[in-house]
Every structure is written in C-alpha cells, then in structure tokens.
Amino acid sequence: MNGPARIPADVDREDRLLAGLTARQLTLLAATGALLYGAWAATRSILALPVFAVLATPIAAAALVLALGQRDGVALYRLVGGAVRHRFSPRQRVADPTPAEPVPEWLVPAATTTKAPRLGAVAAPASGVEPASTGEAGVVDLAGEGIALVAAASTVNFALRTQTEHEALVGAFARYLHSLTAPVQILIRAQRCDLTDKITALREQAPSLPHPALETAAEEHAEFLTHLAGHTDLLRRQVLLVFREAPTHSSADTRPRRPRQPRRGMDAGARHAAEARLLRRVNEAIDLLAPASIRLTVLDTAQATHVLAGACNPDHTGTAEAALADPSEVITTHHATPDELVDPHGWEATP
C-alpha cells in the first residue's frame, strides 16, 4: 500500500455501514419503520392513510431525531439511554449493598417515615489490597482487571545541578522509559499537610532540651509552624509509580465480553505469575532509576491501602475510623436520659 491512509480524528467512532449510518442507527430506524408498518397493517381497515400518516409523523420524527441527532458530539440515543439508566439506578452507593438489620420495634415510632433509599454497590476500581505471595509488597486487586503494585519514588533537585548533571539525569531516566515493556503510571499527587502532631511534639519536647537557647528555638519554631499552618494551605507532594499486570486467560476462552460484563478473577497460578512479573519489573525499575538518584520503595499492604484511601478522599487528613460509629450503635441527636431509653416492651437500653 503506497497511498496515504486516512485516520479519523475520533478513533473510537463507530463503523458506518450504510448511507453513513452506524449499526445502532440503522437498527433504531429499521425497528421504528417495522413498528409503524405493523401498526398500519393492523389499522388500515379502520384508519385512512392520511389519518395514520398524521398520527405516525411525530413518532417517525422522534425516531429520526433520536437516531441522527447529536449533542456535544454524543449521539442522542446514547444520551437518552444514559438518562434512563441513571433514572432507574440506585441513588446511594455503598460498599456492601446487603440490607441492613431492622431497627428495634421501640425505635420505629421515632424513626423517619420516608421510604428507605435503594442502595447499590460501588463500582470501585480496586477490590482489595493483599500481601504478595513472596515478600511484603501490597498487591492491589483491580476487581478482575488484573493486579498492580505501587512504589513511592524520591524526588531529585534538578535546579541545583549543573548542565552535565542535567544530561546525565535525563539520560538515565530516558533509558528507563526506553526499557519499558508494559505500561507504568507515573502519579504525582498532592495532599493537605497537617502539622498538628509536629507542633505538639515540639512543644512537649522543648522543656526537656539541654540548653535554654534550644528550648527557645524549639518554641519559636513551633510558633512559626502554627502561623504557617493557619495562614497557608500547605501541600505535601508524593510521586508514585504504579505497575500493572492485566489478567491472562487460557487461549480456549475466546468468548466475547460485553462492555459492562465484569472480567473473571485470576486463578492462583495466573496470579502468582503476574505477581512475579510485577516484582521483576519493580526490581528493574529500581536498578535503572538508581543512576538518576531516584529511590523506589515498594509500598506494603498498609501503605498501599492508605494511598488508595487518600486518592478517594484527598481532603481528609485524619483517620476515618475515629469518626465512625459501630454498626450496632444507636445514633441519637441528643444525650438521652435513662427514662427516654426505656421502651414499652420492657427492654432497657444503656446510655
């Protein structure tokens, strides 16, 4: 082939089958035409053709607009389908969609009378973090889409280096990029930095310093950090490298997968092989990035879980467990008295 090949700007555009129409557009128009023809065949003995044409024109026009219309480059039938799915989808997403235990009978009169919302499962990209079979690395299970390892990378002060050092650093990093045989995600995340613990530790340890000048310097530094935290939005940046391995199934499994159909999980053998490939890729990255003064540290299970939780809620600086109540704990709007906690059935609750 010597001639140029035309590549559309939208590479995800559906194929045009007939008269510039896609398969879905043709299906929608053909179904509407067949429906109208069937209705005319069933009613032509009682309805004149002009009357049926007047009644069928709005339906045909709506089908044409729905099949051929677009909004911001998206077909209208896709927008309508998304609106219908959104209308009938659960309004609240929870990690465990199983129904909760019913409240005690003595709390029913005081409970809300509104209808309980329909709950749905959260389509989280990760289903859990487990330790690797060999080592302490935290392996992120991508809910049937494979597994991943997360490594924290140190930063390099590029501005204070000479021109020769700049070329050496860029060359070392370029060699690592050139050696990649699988995708690697480089993530630079920023999170609010809470200095409360550091300020408290400085003020507690200042009186125990061996010299009054050191104590004064520690107190002044604590005051400086307090002023800095109160007047500046402090951010802490972290560079992460995410290594991912897609699931590999047997060659006999050639059945097509629907777009919304989840992938099947990896068996033990495939998972062990994927973990071995991930660890090998991480070790190669450690060796290749060392000449660039970049140190990689593989995150364990707790650290990887903390990174995922921070990515889902980046504004949260404290521990989530401290603000959560026990599932069996009764939540009240005020401190109830012992008389209010005695129910008519003879059960007594402890405040």
From TrEMBL:
Transmembrane segments: 21-40, 46-68
Keywords from the named record: Membrane, Transmembrane, Transmembrane helix
Ranges where the record places region Disordered: 247-272
Name of one Pfam family that matches: PrgI
Protein name: PrgI family protein
Protein source organism: Saccharopolyspora rhizosphaerae
